[in-house]
Amino acid sequence: MLMLLAAHGAPPAQAAHPAPPAVVIGRADEAAGSIGVGQVGYLTPPEAGAMGQVLLIEGPGYRTPIHVHHRTDESFYVLSGQLTLHVDGQTRVLGPGDYVFIPRGTPHAQGNQGEAPSRLLLTVSSGDFIGFFRAREELVKTTPPGHPDYGPRMHGLSDVYDVETLGDPPF
Fold first, then answer.
1. CA distance linking residue 161 with residue 90, whole number of Å
2. Which secondary structure element, helix H or strand E, spans residue 4, and what is its range?
3. How far apart are the first and last CA of the chain?
4. Dihedral of the alpha carbons of 79, 118, 123, 52, in degrees to the nearest 10
5. In whole angstroms, how far apart are CA 108 and each of 28, 88, 93?
6. C-beta atoms surrounding 39 within 10 Å
């Protein structure tokens, strides 16, 4: 055995692996925070890197500009209300039980053009995109929608969190 170790060197050291995130059990509505145009409930902890999930509650009339994520895949599942989605030049309305997967690199816009709040399960990969919602929560505490600095500060968040705006809302 000594000759084997001498010929091949010492066995490789075990690579250090970060500890996995803790198991989280809770109710999304217990942790709902305001994002100015609705609420968000976090279903994954901040350190969950591979994927993230949030419960989004979007108010009627909410809409995003046409935008693209270069590093983030998104999947929306409609729990209640409706999701208005613009992708591939078409606008569609999704209802409860409908879902959409939007791969990274796909220009799209979404919102709630219905008359009632929408409850959506949003899953993203990678999970660091969830930081966008946490940052929006902090932003609206001091600079709510309608404030003159809201638009420029939201654009600043977009630069940090993989959101490239391509055009005005299409609906």
1. 26
2. helix 2-8
3. 73
4. -120
5. 26, 8, 13
6. 21
Q: Which one-letter amino acid corresponds to residue 170?
A: P
Residue 100 has what DSSP assignment? Answer: E
Strand partners, 123: 53, 75
pLDDT digits (tens, 9 = 90+) for 50-80: 899 999 999 999 999 999 999 999 999 999 9
Query: Does residue 146 come out as left (phi exceeding 0), alpha (psi in the -120 to 50 range) or beta?
Result: left
SS3 content of the chain, % helix, strand, coil (to 5): 20, 35, 45
- Ranges of beta strands (E only) in 17-126 are 33-34, 38-42, 52-58, 66-68, 73-80, 83-87, 90-94, 99-102, 108-111, 118-125
| Among the listed residues 91, 92, 95, 75, the one whose alpha carbon sits nearest the alpha carbon of residue 170 | 91
Q: What is the pTM of this model?
A: 0.82
80-113 pLDDT per residue, tens: 999 999 999 999 999 999 999 999 999 999 999 9
Residue 47, token pair as written in the block = 């350190």
Hey, what amino acid is at 86?
Answer: H
